[in-house]
Amino acid sequence: MKALLVIDAQDIIVEFKDFQQELNKIESIIQDFKENDEPVIFIRNIDDDETSPFYKELPSSELHHSLKGYADIVIEKKSPSAFLHTDLSDKLDQLGVEHLFITGFNTEFCCQFTAIAAYDRGYQVTFIEDATGTVNDEATYEMKELDVRGFVGTVLNWSNVIEVLDIEEYIEEYKSRRV
User: Fold this and answer.
1) C-alpha distances in Å from residue 115, one per residue of 16, 64, 76, 92, 124
2) Cα of 169 vs its chain's centroid, Å
3) Is the pLDDT assigned to residue 178 strictly greater than 60?
4) How many domains is the chain partitioned into structurally?
5) pLDDT for residue 155
6) CA dist., res. 56 & res. 120, Å (int)
């Protein structure tokens, strides 16, 4: 069975800049999973520190309103990996999931860490590169002309163990098979 992970699609991140294209792509993939009765699991980054924008009681840490209604399951995490100190593995085992699709925010942190951790746990992993987004850019990393998504996608693809697709390739490879 396949499952979709929607990582950290939370107000504090999504409202940082214009992520409408990424949100549209994520929603399209969610709808495909829903049509095929495959689980959609949202990952929510939280913090116990009341001064953090991810403080679990603040509205800024909530799942973004445009996607929130699609969540079958919400897993709360406190680290970049959705697997570390969470019950994600147990939920996936209960559902019989073997193949995870990764979307969400921030590409180079939580999405990448979760993809690698999923592979390490024996899951087949597909990282949908343009259905991820990041608040960071070339200025953040002091690397002129850095394309964070492209860089992460290339590194994961070179690993030869994590499939990296853009949404068009996802549609061709996975959605068209089910129609």
Assistant:
1) 23, 22, 17, 14, 9
2) 17
3) no
4) 1
5) 84
6) 28
Residue with tokens 């520190």: 49
- The type of residue at 1 is M
CATH code of the domain covering residue 68: 3.40.50.850
- Length of the chain equals 179
- The tens digit of pLDDT for each residue in 45-80 reads 999 998 888 888 888 889 999 999 999 899 999 999
The tokens describing 128, both together, are 């949908």
* Angle, CA of 116, 178 and 100, to the nearest 5°: 15
Domain ranges, residue 86: 2-178
Residue type, 151: F
Q: What is the DSSP string of 109-165?
A: IIIHHHHHHHHHTT-EEEEEEEEEE-S--HHHHT-TT--HHHHHHHHHHHTTSEEEE
pLDDT in tens, 81-107: 999 999 999 999 999 999 999 999 998
Q: Which two tokens stand for residue 56?
A: 């679990």
Q: Record the tokens describing residue 101, joined without a space.
A: 């699709």
pLDDT value at residue 85: 97
- C-alpha 72/C-alpha 156 separation (Å) is 27
The residue assigned the tokens 């840490």 is 61
What's the whole-number mean pLDDT along residues 146-168?
84
pTM for this model (two decimals): 0.91
